[in-house]
Amino acid sequence: MLAFLGRRCLIAIPTIILISIFVFGMQKLLPGDPVLAMAGEERDPEVIAYLREKYRLNDPIVVQYLHWIGNALRGDLGISLRTNQPVTELIGEKLPVTLQLAVMALIIAMVIGIPAGVLSAYRKGTWVDWVANTIALSGLSVPNFWLGIMMILLVSVKLGWLPASGYQPLSEDPLQSIKTMLMPAFVLGTAIAATLMRHTRSAMLGVLKSDYVRTARAKGLAEGVVLVKHALRNALVPIVTVTTLLFGELLAGAVLTEQIFTIPGFGKLVVDAVFNRDYAVVQGIVLCTGIAFIAMNILADAAYRVLNPRMTDL
Amino acid sequence: MTDPVLSVTDLSIRMQGAPTDLVDGLSFDLMPGETLCVVGESGCGKSLTALALMGLLPTPPLRLTGGSARFAGRDLFAMSAPERRQIRGGDMAMIFQEPMTSLNPALRIGEQIAESVRRHSGASRDAARQRALEMLERVRIPAPHKRLDEYPHQLSGGMRQRAMIAMALANDPSVLIADEPTTALDVTIQAQILDLMRALQQQSRTALILITHDLGVVAEMADKVLVMYAGRAVEAGPAASIFRDPQHPYTIGLMSSMPSLGTRTDRLVTIPGVVPPPNALPDGCRFAARCPFADAACAAKPAFDMLGDGHGVACWHAPIEQTRSPAPAMGAIA
């Protein structure tokens, strides 16, 4: 397994280089010259020349890229134009927040989506299936922001069970941190839970018809064992694939959710950076997200190998 | 005389919305240690019968419409689901046709056998694993120690069917149902698997219901034969009697369509016509449309008459020797 993971990481390197070229190129393709912006109203040619020299903008583009990627490898992604903070520091501050939100949302989605999918496949055509499908459809149709606002109104304002907004770092007060994050994670997780439920259902429907499920029943095993040990285990491969893909949706959804619940996470950082043309920050975020995505895919590949012993030589 | 280990009376199975039963009034007795071969072409209800006895009938769309199956003094069809599970895989086990797809691809062979042992005997993990190993040795899988921790895809077709047999016999069942256990295998492997099943059966006195459409297998294995056609038993009796003196025109047709070495004919003998589709089964004799002996009497359902020696047949014209006018296709044996 370790050798496999090592190999996958090596294969990921060209992909990361491609992402980095894209991220770097993006800045060059965007309209507007940051130097002109920095030079201020007067646009003194001397100042402009100085700035160009300082930021190595006179170098050939390849040299600029190598310089940038070299710094990135050493953990230096530049300085935010807006806050003058190093980008790495900004990301290091915000990333754990969003990661916590995403992981909690994913857990909530799996806890709801997978059992619901299993049950609705097992009870196909009955009221259980019907109820699960209806809820799933509502989950898909209801916009995140609306659900978020409604939940704040109900759970926080009316019932006062959970805080409406804010953020508590996990390291300082884990319980409080999970409590504040619970509602946003739920809002973010439900949409994904619906998709996950639909995919679990269809994967399970296929597996439940298979001969080995019949064999499992022929052994006299209890239905729960047949469903989980024999059927779900084999249905998990497509479920893992969908979950990996949903991770992207999760990061995108986090932007909105963080706005609604005023969570100081990645999403807010992205929005602020884009509106303020804070390119260094945008670059850093895109690079990080890309790498996170690749990491998710490697994890999914590892999961496939555990779930499906036939996938031995990938 | 000993009591039958399994006694099926009037078993009927129907498809949702169908006007007639797919399996219609099937009855048979199975003695301890006996081998009963159920013969008939595909779609005649052999496998449905097996699934119904195991309690694995996909309901809906299929459902039992009548009959009883007495097993160890109790009616299987009257039992609760947990009671059925207690018997299934324990005292009554089944082997399926497709060893390729009948084993769980994600679980190790040893675990798949051991889990059945744990379920029925309450054995510890180690004891069940030990039993799995013992069973793999008994079914003569090469390198059984290694196989325990292998996955189904690492085994050949023959080895997988051996593993299935090991799994089915792990709890010393008194009845084993084998649904075409050799059909999906190479011919050379088929004989090995049949030999193995017979040897194991003799060791454990397990009664075997062997479902097949291969009369060669029947000749090899059967003590008793049950011939089914379009959901009904058309003939049943001791294997020797059926092979020596088949009475039902369908049985006769089956036997004459079996190619044999030595007598080489230009064309293989076939039974003319096709099986009636399940939604258009006639009330009378279901074979009448293809039968060279059919006449007006065949429009009524023939009773299953005993001819003696436990040999019975459902045909208006039995005993067939007294009936004239054999058709050309049947000429080969007349």
Can you describe this structure?
The complex is a heterodimer of chains A (314) and B (334). Chain A has 314 residues and is mainly alpha-helical. Chain A has 12 helices and no strands. Chain A folds into 2 domains: 72 residues, no CATH class; 220 residues, MetI-like fold (Orthogonal Bundle), CATH 1.10.3720. The model of chain A has no long low-confidence stretch (mean pLDDT 84). Chain B is of the alpha/beta class and 334 residues long. Chain B folds into 2 domains: 217 residues, Rossmann fold; 89 residues, no CATH class. In chain B, the strands form 2 sheets. An 8-stranded mixed sheet of chain B has the order 6-7-8-3-9-10-12-11, sandwiched between helices. Chain B has a 4-stranded antiparallel sheet with strand order 2-1-4-5, covered by helices on one side. In chain B, a hairpin with a 2-residue loop joins strand 4 and strand 5. The longest helix of chain B is centred in the middle third of the chain and has 18 residues.
In CATH, the topology of the largest domain in chain A is named: MetI-like fold
Please tell me the CATH architecture of the largest domain in chain A by its name.
Orthogonal Bundle
Rg from Cα of chain A? 24 Å
CATH class of the largest domain in chain B: Alpha Beta
CATH architecture of the largest domain in chain B: 3-Layer(aba) Sandwich
Residue share in helix of chain A = over 70%
- Number of helical segments with 4 or more residues of chain A: 12
SSE string of chain A, helices as H and strands as E: HHHHHHHHHHHH
Strand share of the residues of chain A?
Answer: under 5%
And the CATH topology of the largest domain in chain B?
Rossmann fold
Largest interface: A-B, 20 and 29 residues
- The low-pLDDT segments of chain B are 327-334
Largest sheet of chain B: 8 strands, mixed
Helix/strand-derived category of chain B reads alpha/beta
